[in-house]
């Protein structure tokens, strides 16, 4: 999966710059390290986030097999009894005023019979399942026999937990058997204020909410970089409804105003199921497990195929309540690049959109990196979070997927442009697509993690440089 020529750093000049960048990435992860898990960002996100931790484990696997494995094992210690992996595990030591909504806001979710023991408290939402991909990457990154033995032991420990997580998503989150995962909240998509959710969110009628603090705004220069107050009211109201349903999937499904088949989440699950199938082979899991996993992946591919929109040349999410696809042009529309297995014809059509002015081919872009929302979309906003900025972590997902699809040239361009962007602007959470200005949180852990994975430099040299 990893191109061998990427292992060879080409010239002495790039070598020096890349070692320096990797050393800085390692330093960021070290500064955000809480011992057995990593803060998503130093101040804005002082807790453990689910999909952040998976990307962090991918980066850590380049430095330290054991620590990378620990990152995922810590997260899975807080897995719910029904298999759900919570989107946040709250750090009991973080000051209460550091993040809103914090642990106290979610504490009553612990009353659910499925919730794990607390404290620490967890949220009752989940996020895209990058974890099996990360777990397998820990084995793939192992540099010698000792690391491989350690990684294999880790895979044996985490396999049943990953299996339970994927089973939860394939059942409770897909009662229709469509192959597509239903999310209950924009936070579950990981692309919180994406225009993908605008229409559905506009129909959420917010009831009585007590005043609450927007702590996130204290960590950015410009409030336009974060979701609006109206977005937050709806986010909190949806959480209230989910807690009101005792976090029970069946009850939520009956009455919840936000039920979305998320193509990005579902495509990541396909790639994660493929990784899980490989892990099942490594750990010698029974045949019936493997058949189930392969069946989930197959069904999801079919479900995703039905989301193709020939007009927009993108894949579209689907609103379960109104029974209609959501016509918005965002990075999620490329999701089946991640699940793979597309026909050459479909892949070609999708890449036409990818290369067009609606995405990486837009002449105004600072670098040819896909903006989170298409500049051609009327709700595009270049500074607002998931409504336009470029996210390094999305660059990693697309780079990885293009490599898998055999499109190495495009993949290399994304890798190089992403590294240049970070070398110029730092390890920001996201970037203004036309100027390259770093936005959101500085020193974001997953931005550092993907840089480490991209550079693949000798860990000993990174450590020496960072010391
Ligand atoms: C809510 C931590 C998380 C990411 C999400 C990103 C953002 C949280 C927030 O930060 O969401 O979960 O408070 O805005 O949207 O993808 O996991 O980095």
Q: What's a quick, concise take on this entry?
A:
The protein has 467 residues and is mostly helical. The chain has helices at 12-31, 50-60, 65-76, 103-106, 131-141, 145-171, 186-189, 198-202, 229-244, 249-255, 263-283, 287-305, 336-339, 344-355, 392-404, 408-425, 445-455, 459-466, and strands at 48-49, 88-89, 182-183, 260-261, 308-309, 314-315, 318-319, 324-325, 430-431, 438-439. The strands form four sheets. Strands 3-4-7-8 form a four-stranded antiparallel β-sheet. A two-stranded antiparallel sheet has the order 1-2.
- Name the structural class: mainly alpha
**Coarse shape:** globular
Helix content: 40-55%
SSE arrangement, N to C? HEHHEHHHEHHHHEHHEEEEHHHHEEHH
Largest sheet: 4 strands, antiparallel
Count of DSSP E strands?
10
Average pLDDT reading? 94
Radius of gyration from CA coordinates: 21 Å
Write up what this structure looks like:
The chain has 467 residues and is mainly alpha-helical. 48% of the residues lie in helices and 4% in strands. The protein is built from 18 helices and 10 strands. The protein has helices spanning 12-31, 50-60, 65-76, 103-106, 131-141, 145-171, 186-189, 198-202, 229-244, 249-255, 263-283, 287-305, 336-339, 344-355, 392-404, 408-425, 445-455, 459-466, and strands spanning 48-49, 88-89, 182-183, 260-261, 308-309, 314-315, 318-319, 324-325, 430-431, 438-439. The chain has a 4-stranded antiparallel sheet with strand order 3-4-7-8. A hairpin with a 6-residue loop joins β9 (430-431) and β10 (438-439). α1 (12-31) packs antiparallel against α17 (445-455) and α11 (263-283) packs antiparallel against α12. The longest helix has 27 residues, at 145-171. The radius of gyration is 21 Å and the shape is globular. It starts with 11 loop residues before the first helix and ends with a helix. Residues 1-11 have low confidence and may be disordered. Bound molecules: (2R)-2-(alpha-D-glucopyranosyloxy)-3-hydroxypropanoic acid. (2R)-2-(alpha-D-glucopyranosyloxy)-3-hydroxypropanoic acid binds at residues 40, 45, 49, 51-52, 87, 187, 190, 192, 216.
């Amino acid at each position: 999966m990893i191109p061998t020529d990427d292992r060879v750093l080409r010239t002495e000049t790039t070598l020096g710059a890349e070692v320096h960048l990797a050393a800085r990435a390692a330093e960021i992860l070290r500064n955000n390290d809480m011992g057995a898990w990593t803060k998503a960002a130093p101040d804005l996100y002082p807790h453990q986030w689910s999909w952040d931790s998976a990307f962090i484990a991918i980066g850590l696997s380049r430095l330290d097999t054991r620590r990378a494995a620990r990152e995922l094992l810590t997260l899975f210690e807080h897995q719910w009894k029904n298999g759900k992996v919570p989107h946040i595990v709250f750090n009991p030591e973080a000051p209460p005023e550091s993040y809103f909504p914090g642990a106290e806001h979610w504490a009553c979710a612990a009353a659910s019979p499925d919730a794990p023991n607390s404290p620490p408290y967890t949220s009752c939402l989940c996020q895209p399942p990058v974890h099996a991909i990360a777990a397998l990457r820990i084995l793939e990154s192992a540099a010698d026999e000792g690391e491989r033995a350690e990684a294999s032991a880790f895979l044996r420990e985490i396999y049943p937990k990953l299996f339970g997580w994927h089973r939860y998503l394939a059942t409770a989150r897909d009662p229709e058997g469509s192959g597509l995962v239903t999310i209950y909240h924009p936070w579950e998509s990981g692309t919180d204020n994406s225009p993908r959710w605008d229409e559905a969110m506009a129909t959420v009628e917010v009831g009585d909410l007590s005043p609450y603090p927007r702590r996130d705004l204290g960590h950015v220069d410009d409030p336009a970089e974060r979701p609006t107050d109206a977005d937050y009211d709806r986010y909190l109201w949806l959480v209230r409804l989910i807690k009101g349903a005792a976090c029970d999937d069946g009850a939520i499904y009956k009455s919840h105003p936000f039920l979305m088949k998320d193509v990005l989440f579902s495509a990541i699950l396909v790639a994660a199921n493929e990784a899980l199938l490989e892990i099942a082979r490594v750990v010698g899991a029974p045949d019936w497990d493997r058949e189930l996993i392969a069946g989930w992946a197959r069904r999801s591919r079919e479900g995703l195929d039905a989301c193709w929109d020939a007009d927009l040349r993108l894949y579209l999410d689907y609103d379960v309540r109104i029974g209609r696809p959501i016509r918005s042009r965002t990075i999620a529309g490329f999701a089946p690049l991640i699940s793979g297995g597309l026909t050459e014809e479909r892949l070609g059509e999708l890449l036409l959109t990818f290369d067009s002015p609606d995405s990486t081919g837009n002449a105004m872009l600072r670098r040819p990196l896909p903006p989170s929302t298409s500049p051609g979309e009327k709700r595009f906003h270049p500074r607002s979070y998931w409504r336009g900025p470029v996210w390094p972590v999305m660059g990693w997902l697309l780079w990885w997927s293009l490599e898998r699809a055999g499109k190495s040239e495009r993949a290399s361009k994304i890798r190089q442009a992403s590294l240049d962007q970070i070398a110029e602007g730092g390890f920001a959470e996201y970037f203004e697509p036309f100027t390259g200005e770093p936005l959101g949180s500085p020193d974001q852990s997953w931005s550092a993690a993907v840089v480490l994975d991209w550079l693949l430099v000798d860990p000993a040299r990174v450590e020496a440089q960072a010391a």
